Amino acid sequence: MSLVLDPTAQDLLFREARTANTFTDEPVTEEQIQAIYDLVKYGPTAFNQTPLRITLVRSAEARERLVQHMSEGNQAKTAAAPLVAILSADNEFHEELPTLFPAFPQAKDVFFSERPARENAAGMNSALQAAYFIVGVRAAGLAAGPMTGFDFEGVRKEFLDDDHTPLMVVNIGKPGTDAWYPRSPRLAYDEVVTTV
Fold this sequence. Notes:
single chain, alpha+beta, 4-stranded antiparallel sheet
């Protein structure tokens, strides 16, 4: 059985998608990021939680502060990327649930009154949204360089607050020279999928 999605789109979103390590100096506009968000905001999450928060690092001063918290191997590419986004989980997402999930507005108190439950849900659902965001960057004709090589607590203190947990830092832009490492292997279908 073939997929409904056009093969060119399949390639753009998945088969040719890799982490970009270099970028051109072409800027990433606010309009591009708005268009990406306006697409990926529809990706499903449990109870429509939408706990992902995006912090765009645009100023030179903020970029310097962020680079100091990146692992050594990620510093130069983060310093040079046209745009950098810090993706985080909002652990107080439940405050929006009466609006975001009107079918069951009491979910806010029934399921998420305790902080550990919120942190667990926010982590899982913001990770889903982060994946949607990366695919959205690809859909916009841009390249993404998601990274978890950084000082999480340092980034949280520098850019966020106690209610937000950093997930990843994503460099964004048009791919530059030698942007891609060779494609790494993938597991075969029968190594991943089990029928019971």
